[in-house]
């Protein structure tokens, strides 16, 4: 690795800022920063940036497009790196996702879960999953509604090779992160409800918060934040 590479210096500065903000938000919420996993969202960026981030201590990476991600994962998958699928997933790509990603955060239907289960059985793997919830019921977003999640969760809980780990949401765009605090709070409320209704599953993780709102998400209980632009800079328009 070349030292003093401009991209690496910028990345180091960005990461230091994000880590400091995570620690500050955790402290405000009386939580420990080590209870919060930073997933660096590397979509649209080359694998070279992923490697630089790894050298700066990042071990979790998020991608939303299977094809793009597979090339990066094939190129870079040391033992301690976890790749997270965070985008809407079509069932016909489920086999590849089971074979390459470490987490699927975007399980948004029983049909998709069944397909993941079938491939997990075939490949003799267990797949950690989160259920994606469209808290604000936005037309433009995938995800289960708050109301349908418990029923679908009960069905998915019966699938032997999927390991339920919690919930994920993408909050609406907002000019002020305070405006989406109720969205994060609602996901936390759903987690409480699922802990009561389906105590045999783990509901430990709340994956919520992105560049514009991760501090608020941590105050509301996020255990995973998915941060792209604040780490890697603006994405080229795709
Ligand atoms: C792109 C993306 C992110 C990261 O968004 P930033 O605003 O760049 O931090 C997080 N989660 C999902 C599901 C995404 O698609």
UniProtKB/TrEMBL annotation:
Its cofactor is pyridoxal 5'-phosphate. The modification N6-(pyridoxal phosphate)lysine is found at residue 43. It comes from the Bacteria. PROSITE patterns: UPF0001. Gene3D superfamilies: Alanine racemase (3.20.20.10). Keywords: Pyridoxal phosphate. GO terms for molecular function: pyridoxal phosphate binding. Residues 16-236 form the Alanine racemase N-terminal domain. InterPro entries: Ala_racemase_N, PLP-binding_barrel, PyrdxlP_homeostasis. CDD domains: PLPDE_III_YBL036c_like (cd00635). Pyridoxal 5'-phosphate (PLP)-binding protein, which is involved in PLP homeostasis. Belongs to the pyridoxal phosphate-binding protein YggS/PROSC family. HAMAP family: PLP_homeostasis. NCBIfam families: YggS family pyridoxal phosphate-dependent enzyme. This is Pyridoxal phosphate homeostasis protein. It comes from Reticulibacter mediterranei.
